[in-house]
Specification:
- By secondary structure, this protein is of the alpha/beta class.
- It is built from 28 helices and 15 strands.
- It has a ten-stranded mixed β-sheet, sandwiched between helices. The chain has a three-stranded antiparallel β-sheet with strand order 1-3-2, with no helix packed on it.
- Helix 2 packs across helix 7 and helix 20 packs parallel to helix 22.
- It is elongated, with a radius of gyration of 36 Å.
- The N terminus is likely disordered.
Length: about 900
C-alpha cells in the first residue's frame, strides 16, 4: 500500500491551514463525512498503483502539473488533499481561491473585543450601583463568583479551540463539531439568543449614559434643555438610532470594527485611568446632585435639589460601604437582592466569547483564542477590583444608591468619563451584534433548521454575512422594547449561564468519554474545571442494560429489518419505523461474495449510500451491511451481532418470498420542488436512484431460494428472535390513509389458522401481535385515522359466543388495549377439513398451537376469502405465523400455504413471538 505523506514544508500545522483555507466551502454539519466531495472522486489508496495523498500548500499547487483537491470536513476543513499522480500525469485544474477573511491577530481579534465587551455597562454605569447595594465585601465576592464561572468556561473554550482547526461560528462551531448536530444546534441557539440579549443590554446602557448626561436634567444640560425623555418611546427612539449606527458598521464589515477596536480600547483605558487618578487627586468634599428622574428621591416635581456626597478616600466612608444595604432601583422601581444585583453584574461581564465568535476572521484561532481571552479576563478583573475598592472608600451610600452616572462629576475633566461610557457600551453592543450574526451564519451553513436559516448564509463578496446581520438587528430591535438596562439584564444572565454550562458540559463529555481524538494542546484544561456527566453516563447506562435484568414491563421492539433492495421496500421501512416505539431499528443487508475477491471492502463502499437512503426516507435507523458467502449466512451474522450491549434486536422482520414481481416504491418518495428562499435540494434522490438498481423482473434469477428463505425464518427463531414476515407493503399508501375522512382498521387475527382447534387459546404470539398492533395505533397520526380490531373466530353452533367475546374484551381491558372485538363465525368452513370436529378445540390442543400443520388447499382458499371479506377498510392486518416444519422437504408447501392465506389482502404481517411482551401489573 502506498504510504500517505504529510508535508508541512517546515511550518506549523496552523500556518498551513491558514494558507490553504477556502472560505465558504465548509461542509454542512448534517452532511455525512463519507459523502463524496465534488472535487474528488478518489477513495483512499488500497494498492501500490493508487495515488498517495498529502496535505499541501495551495500556493504551491498552481504549477504546470495541476492537481486535484479534496476537502476534509469538520476539524480539518481548512486543509486540502493533493493527489500525487504516480505516473506523473496531469490532473484537474486547481480550485479557485476566494478572498481570505483571516486578517486579525490576537490583540485586535480577541483581546480588544473581549475586554471591551466585559467593560460594557459595569465599568462606568453600574460599578457604583453594585457597591452601593451589595457593599464592598459582597461586591468582591460577586466579582470572584462571576469570574470563576467565566474562567472555567474559558478553559473549556481554550481546550476545544486547540483540538483542531477552527472555522467561523466560534464556540458553537467548536462544540457542534465535537459532539454532533443535536448538542451543537442547541448550544448554537443559546449562544445566538444570549448575544442578541446582550446587544440590547449594551445599547440600553449607551442610551442611559446619553440621557443621564444630555437629557432634560442631564449633568451637562442647564436651564431645562436637553434631549426629551418624558416617555419610554423617546428612549426607544434613541435606542433605535444607536442600534442603526451599529448596524451600519456591521454591514460595512466586522473587520473594520476589529481594526478600530484597539483605538477604542485605548480610549476606555485612558478614561478609566482618569477615574483612578481623580479619586486620589480630588480629596475634598464634593456634593453631587441626584438626577431629577429619580422618583424615589423626588416625589414631587417641586422638590428642591438633593445631593449625595463624594468624600474622597476616607476610612469612615470605607467602613460605611463594607456591608450590603439592598434598596429599590430607581430606574425599574424594583426591590433588589443578592440575586438581582449579581444578575446585573454578571450580564455586564459576559463577553468572553466575543473573541471566539470572530474565529472565522482570526489568522490563528487555536492560539489567539486562549491567549487573548485569558489575558482580557485577567485585565478586566483587576480593573474591576481596583475600581470597586476606590468607589467604596470615596462615595457615600446615598450617592451610590441614587446616582448611577456620578463618575464624571468627580473627574478632573468630566468629558473623559462620558467618552468612556459611550466607547465601552457602544463597542460592546457592536461586538455582540457581530458575534450573534456570525453564529447565525454558522447555524445556516450547517442546515440544522432546514431552509429557515438559508438566507443567513448569504454574504458579500468579501464574506460579510449581511443578511444574518439584518436578522440579528431586527431581533435586537424587538428586545429593546423591554425597556431599561436593569430589566434586560436578568434574562441575559440566564441565557449566558445556560450557554456556559453547555460549553463546560461538552468538554466534560469529551474528556470523561476518553474520546481518542480529543487531544487539546491547551495544557491547563482538566475535567475538574467543569461539572456534569453526559457521555460517561450514557456509556454507564448502556453497560447496565443487562438482558438478564430485563423486565416485561419495559419491553419495546428492537427490530432488525432485512432489506434486499431498498427501492422496493420504502413503504415497509417507513412502516417498521412507526412500530419500533422509540426502540432500536437496524436496516440489515447482505452482500454476497468473498472479501478476497475484492481490492477494497465492498461494505465500506456501499454503506454510505444506504445511509443516504435512510436520510432520504427520514427514518431513525442504523444500517448494518455485511459480506457473506450466502444470504442465509449473512443473516445469521446480522441477527447475532447487530446492536450494542443490551440494545440488541429482539425481532427480525423479512419481506415476503413469493412469485410476484417487486414494485419500485422509491418513485413515490420523490421530493417535490418548492421555493422558500431558494429551491429544495433534490440531489439526494437522484444519487439514490442512480446507485440502487431497479427491482428485478419476474424472470430474473434470485440469489435466494424458497428453501433458504424458510431456513432463515427457522434460524431467526432458533437464535431466539421474534420473526415477522411482511407482504403487500408496496400497496401501503400512508398519506391516503391519514388524509382520508373515513377511518381505516388495524386488524389482528390471533389464531393459528393451520391449527383451527386452538382458536380458543392465546399464546405469546397472539400477545405479540396485539402489542405490535397497539404500538402502531399509538402513533399519533395512525391513532387519528385508524381503529384497532381483534377478530374472534367462533363456532356458533357449539360455543357460547357472547361469553367468549366478554372474556376477550375483559382481557384487552386488563392489557390497556383499546380495541373493538369483531366476532366472525367460521362454521361453514368445517366441511373443508378431514375431521369435522377439529374446530371444537380442547385443553390438550394448546401445546401444539405454535406448530404448522398442512391443511387442505380449499380450506386455505376459504379462510383467505373470509379474511378478504372482512378487510375492505383494513390498513394493515396481523396474522399468526406458525413455526416452519421440521422436515425441509415441507418448506415449499409451508411457504405456498402462507402465500395462499395472504393473497389479495391489504398489507399483511405474519407474526411469531417467543417471549412475553405484555404485562397487566403496574
Amino acid at each position: 500500500m502506498t504510504s500517505q505523506s504529510y508535508d508541512t514544508f517546515g511550518r506549523s500545522g496552523d500556518s498551513v491551514h491558514r494558507e490553504m483555507e477556502r472560505p465558504g466551502e465548509r461542509t454542512p454539519l448534517l452532511h455525512h463525512q463519507y459523502e463524496d466531495d465534488s472535487s474528488s472522486t478518489q477513495s483512499w489508496p488500497s494498492n501500490d498503483d493508487s495515488p498517495a495523498y498529502r496535505i499541501s500548500d495551495t500556493r504551491n499547487s498552481t504549477n504546470a502539473s495541476a492537481r486535484r483537491f479534496m476537502t476534509l470536513p469538520r476539524s480539518l476543513s481548512q486543509a486540502s488533499f493533493e493527489t500525487v499522480d504516480s505516473a506523473g500525469g496531469d490532473a484537474a485544474p486547481p480550485t479557485v481561491v476566494r478572498p481570505n477573511r483571516r486578517t486579525l491577530n490576537t490583540f485586535q481579534g480577541v483581546f480588544c473585543p473581549v475586554a471591551l465587551s466585559m467593560f460594557s455597562t459595569l465599568l462606568y454605569l453600574r460599578g457604583g450601583f453594585v457597591v452601593g447595594q451589595a457593599g464592598l465585601l459582597e461586591a468582591i465576592a460577586q466579582l470572584i463568583l462571576a469570574y470563576v464561572i467565566l474562567v472555567l468556561t474559558v478553559l473549556s473554550i481554550c481546550a476545544i479551540s486547540t483540538n483542531g482547526a477552527v472555522e467561523g461560528g466560534g464556540a458553537y462551531y467548536m462544540i457542534s463539531r465535537a459532539l454532533g448536530p443535536e448538542f451543537g444546534g442547541s448550544i448554537g441557539f443559546l449562544f445566538f439568543v444570549a448575544n442578541v440579549l446582550a446587544c440590547a443590554l449594551y445599547v440600553s446602557g449607551f442610551v442611559e449614559g446619553v440621557l443621564q448626561n444630555f437629557g432634560t436634567s442631564g449633568s451637562f444640560i442647564k436651564d431645562g434643555g436637553g434631549l426629551p425623555e418624558d416617555t419610554q418611546w423617546w428612549r426607544y427612539l434613541y435606542s433605535t438610532i444607536s442600534l442603526a449606527f451599529c448596524l451600519l458598521i456591521c454591514i460595512i464589515g466586522g473587520a473594520m470594527f476589529a481594526r478600530t477596536s484597539a483605538l477604542i480600547l485605548l480610549i476606555v483605558v485612558v478614561c478609566t485611568l482618569s477615574v483612578f487618578i481623580s479619586v486620589f487627586v480630588e480629596n475634598d468634599l464634593i456634593q453631587i446632585e441626584i438626577p431629577s428622574t429619580n422618583t424615589l428621591v423626588y416625589t414631587n416635581s417641586s422638590d428642591n435639589a438633593t445631593y449625595g456626597n463624594y468624600t474622597g478616600l476616607r476610612a469612615a466612608t470605607f467602613r460605611g460601604n463594607l456591608f450590603e444595604d439592598y434598596t429599590r432601583d430607581y430606574t425599574s422601581n424594583e426591590t433588589l437582592n443578592f440575586a438581582t444585583v449579581f444578575a446585573i453584574l454578571f450580564s455586564s461581564v459576559t463577553g468572553i466569547l466575543n473573541g471566539a465568535n470572530m474565529s472565522g476572521e482570526l489568522k490563528d484561532p487555536s492560539k489567539s483564542i486562549p491567549k487573548g481571552t485569558l489575558s482580557a479576563v485577567c485585565f478586566t478583573f483587576f480593573t474591576y477590583v481596583i475600581m470597586t475598592i476606590l468607589l467604596a472608600g470615596s462615595c457615600d451610600r446615598f450617592l451610590l444608591h441614587n446616582n448611577y452616572v456620578f463618575l464624571q462629576q468627580i473627574n478632573f475633566w468630566p468629558p473623559l468619563v462620558v467618552i468612556g461610557i459611550f466607547a465601552a457600551t457602544l463597542s460592546a453592543a457592536l461586538g455582540n451584534l457581530i458575534g450573534a450574526s456570525r453564529i447565525l451564519e454558522a447555524l445556516g451553513n450547517d442546515q440544522l433548521f432546514w431552509v429557515i436559516l438559508k438566507p443567513a448564509t448569504i454574504t458579500t463578496k468579501s464574506g460579510n454575512p449581511y443578511v444574518a446581520v439584518l436578522i440579528t438587528w431586527f431581533l435586537v430591535q424587538l428586545v429593546l422594547l423591554v425597556g431599561s438596562l436593569n430589566a434586560i439584564a436578568p434574562i441575559t444572565s440566564v441565557f449566558f449561564l445556560l450557554s456556559y454550562a453547555a460549553t463546560n458540559l461538552a468538554c466534560l463529555g469529551l474528556e470523561l468519554a476518553s474520546a481518542p481524538n480529543f487531544r487539546p494542546t491547551f495544557s491547563y484544561f482538566t475535567w475538574h474545571t467543569c461539572a456534569a456527566l453526559i457521555f460517561h453516563q450514557v456509556r454507564k447506562y448502556l453497560l447496565m442494560l443487562d438482558p438478564r435484568k430485563a423486565h416485561v414491563k419495559y419491553w419495546r421492539p428492537q427490530i432488525l429489518l432485512m432489506v434486499s433492495n431498498p427501492r422496493q421496500s420504502c413503504q415497509l421501512m417507513d412502516f417498521v419505523n412507526d412500530i419500533k416505539k422509540s426502540g432500536l431499528l437496524v436496516i440489515g443487508h447482505v452482500r454476497t461474495g468473498r472479501l478476497e475477491d475484492h481490492q477494497v471492502d465492498p461494505v465500506v463502499e456501499i454503506t454510505p449510500h444506504w445511509l443516504k437512503m435512510v436520510d432520504h426516507l427520514r427514518i431513525k435507523a442504523f444500517v448494518e451491511v455485511t459480506l457473506a458467502n450466502s444470504v442465509s449466512e449473512g443473516f445469521q451474522h446480522l441477527t447475532r451481532l447487530s446492536g450494542l450491549g443490551g440494545m440488541k434486536p429482539n425481532t427480525v422482520i423479512l419481506g415476503f418470498y413469493d412469485g410476484s414481481a417487486p414494485m419500485d416504491t422509491l418513485i413515490k418518495t420523490r421530493p417535490r420542488r418548492r421555493r422558500f428562499f431558494g429551491e429544495v435540494e433534490t440531489g439526494t434522490y437522484s444519487e439514490i436512484e442512480s446507485f440502487f438498481t431497479s427491482p428485478r423482473d419476474v424472470d430474473t434469477q434470485r440469489n435466494l431460494t424458497a428453501t433458504e428463505y424458510v431456513r432463515m425464518v427457522k434460524d431467526g427463531l432458533k437464535i431466539n428472535k421474534n420473526v415477522c414476515l411482511c407482504r403487500h407493503f408496496h400497496q401501503l399508501d400512508k398519506k391516503q390513509i391519514l388524509a382520508s375522512n373515513v377511518n381505516s382498521f388495524i386488524d389482528v387475527w390471533p389464531t393459528n389458522l393451520f391449527q383451527p382447534d386452538t382458536a380458543g387459546f392465546f399464546d405469546n404470539t397472539c400477545l405479540f401481535m396485539l402489542q405490535l398492533a397497539c404500538i402502531l395505533n399509538m402513533v399519533p397520526k395512525w391513532r387519528a385515522r385508524t381503529t384497532l380490531r381483534v377478530f374472534l373466530l367462533v363456532n356458533a353452533q357449539s360455543e357460547n359466543t357472547i361469553q367468549k367475546e366478554q372474556k376477550l374484551d375483559m382481557f384487552l381491558r386488563q392489557l390497556r388495549i383499546k380495541a373493538r372485538v369483531q366476532i366472525v363465525s367460521w362454521d361453514h368452513l368445517q366441511h373443508y377439513l378431514q375431521d369435522p370436529n377439529i374446530m371444537s378445540g380442547g385443553e390438550e390442543d394448546a401445546s401444539k398451537m405454535q406448530q404448522y400443520r398442512e391443511v387442505p388447499e380449499n380450506f386455505i382458499k376459504a379462510v383467505n376469502e373470509l379474511i378478504v371479506a372482512n378487510s375492505s377498510r383494513s390498513a394493515v392486518s396481523f396474522l399468526y405465523l406458525p413455526k416452519p416444519p421440521m422436515d425441509s422437504s415441507d418448506y415449499a408447501k409451508y411457504l405456498s400455504q402462507l402465500e395462499g392465506l395472504s393473497n389479495n389482502l391489504h398489507p399483511t404481517v405474519f407474526v411469531h413471538g417467543l417471549h412475553p411482551v405484555t404485562s397487566t401489573t403496574l
